[in-house]
Write a structure and sequence with these properties.
Blueprint lengths: L17 H6 L4 E5 L2 E6 L3 H10 L2 E4 L5 E5 L3 H8 L12 E3 L2 E2 L5 E3 L2 E6 L2 E5 L5 H12 L4 E4 L3 E6 L3 H9 L11 E6 L2 E6 L8 E6 L5 H11 L6 E3 L3 H6 L35 H7 L5 E8 L9 E4 L2 E12 L4 E9 H4 L4 E4 L2 E6 L5 H4 L1
Parallel strand pairs: 3-15
Antiparallel strand pairs: 1-2, 3-11, 4-9, 4-10, 5-8, 6-7, 8-9, 11-14, 12-13, 13-14, 16-19, 16-21, 17-18, 18-19, 20-21
Bound molecules: (6S)-5,6,7,8-tetrahydrofolate.
């Protein structure tokens, strides 16, 4: 991949952390939910090791919170997702696909039950606000829908718990995975959840006061000096090794949750009112594609992201990266299931790629 200059304007929204991100020497941004998302500071690989060994602070403000409040809020959220949300407790996050009436994936957010009649959809990169407003209008639901003034800041890595405890206090270690507490910074309570887009452990701080963005950033860096704290962002190497899906890359509106291996996050048998469930029940077992891993011993170049076998297209490369830890070229490929039934490898330019299930099982690959 090559990097090009990104033209920045009002459309590529900045965040309250952007001045600090710039001062930290950001080298690359992407645009996510029409907002800047820092991707590279030192280099993809140096950032990877810092994330895996120490602790990083990520400006993930682009994880916009679509707030759905009012008497019908839970009804609307349940309509949009095939995951049963009826047992969620206040302060809990639930990773859940949103699907349309055909079972196509609209987004794969973290759903947060912030209060009884107040849900946050912590969205991946697609315009869920428009979809939610359209559904609410069309179904006559009594809800308010807005993009909340919340800017998540992730603290990720093995030393994240130590750092967040130093800044937010001794209640931090007691927070369970995908649960949260309201904790104070400079006298202001904000949600702190044990979550984040890496498997190195960590927290997301849902900043609710833009004026505290730079003080919070500065405090994390002051307290984290001896922990080697660095600025970072969702890291391509780490997230592929960990099997975390990226909407728009690994899957999009053309795919359903079965094809992406999101089966665990849908409740086909639940007695819930969800617009995609009838279609998903009908599709199950009959989907055409499957997202799998294909592992090579060295980097290979695909022709227009195509995986071919005997001159025929059998798969579509969605994400790829060189893993410095495992010294393997990891690809995530949407493959035809018909091909998978009879093949366990593919050959690209004389390089044999081993087809494996996701997430990657590195003991099996070695
Ligand atoms: N945090 C928050 N919002 C987000 C993301 C996030 N919105 C956009 C994007 N990331 C959504 N995608 C994911 C993908 C995977 C996970 C979280 C968000 C994730 N998955 C775990 C797993 O697959 O093991 C746990 C899932 C579970 O048990 O519920 O964490 O990062 N706020």
């Amino acid at each position: 991949m090559t990097y090009k200059i990104l033209s920045i304007s009002r459309r590529t929204r900045k965040t309250p952390f952007t001045p600090r991100v710039e001062a930290a020497g950001v080298k690359g941004y992407t645009v996510y939910n029409h907002m800047l998302l820092p991707t590279i500071f030192e280099s993809n690989e140096a950032d990877y090791w810092s994330l895996c060994q120490d602790v990083q602070v990520w400006d993930v403000s682009c994880e916009r919170q679509i707030e759905v409040s009012g008497p019908d809020s839970e009804r609307l959220i349940q309509l949009m997702t095939p995951r049963d949300i009826s047992q969620a407790v206040i302060g809990q996050g639930l990773y859940a696909p949103l699907c349309d009436e055909n079972g196509a994936i609209i987004n794969d957010p973290v759903l947060i039950k912030f209060a009884a009649d107040d849900w946050w959809i912590s969205i991946a990169d697609s315009d869920v606000r428009l979809w939610a407003r359209g559904l609410a209008q069309g179904s006559g639901l009594d809800v308010k829908i807005r993009e909340a003034s919340i800017w998540p800041l992730a603290v990720q890595g093995p030393k994240a718990e130590e750092l967040v405890t130093r800044v937010f206090g001794n209640e931090v270690p007691g927070i369970r995975f995908f649960r949260s507490k309201m904790l104070e910074f400079r006298g202001k309570a904000m949600m702190v959840m044990r979550s984040g887009y890496s498997k190195q452990g960590g927290f997301e701080i849902y900043l609710n006061d833009a004026d505290l963005a730079e003080p919070l950033w500065d405090e994390l860096f002051a307290q984290g000096q001896d922990l080697n704290v660095r600025a970072g962002g969702p890291n391509l190497i780490e997230r592929i090794e960990s099997g975390l899906l990226s909407y728009g890359n690994d899957m999009n509106f053309n795919h359903n949750p079965f094809e992406c291996g999101l089966d665990a996050f849908i409740d086909l048998d639940a007695d819930i009112e969800s617009m995609s469930l009838p279609a998903l029940r009908a599709i199950k077992g009959r989907h055409v594609h499957q997202l799998v891993g294909i592992v090579f011993d060295q980097p290979v170049e695909f022709d227009d992201f195509r995986v071919e076998a005997d001159g025929e297209a059998v798969g579509d490369v969605r994400s790829q990266v060189w893993s410095p830890r495992y010294e393997k070229f990891l690809t995530m490929v949407m493959m035809k299931r018909e091909f998978l039934r009879e093949n366990t490898s593919v050959t690209i330019d004389n390089n044999i790629g081993k087809i494996v299930d996701l997430p990657f099982d590195f003991d099996a690959i070695a």
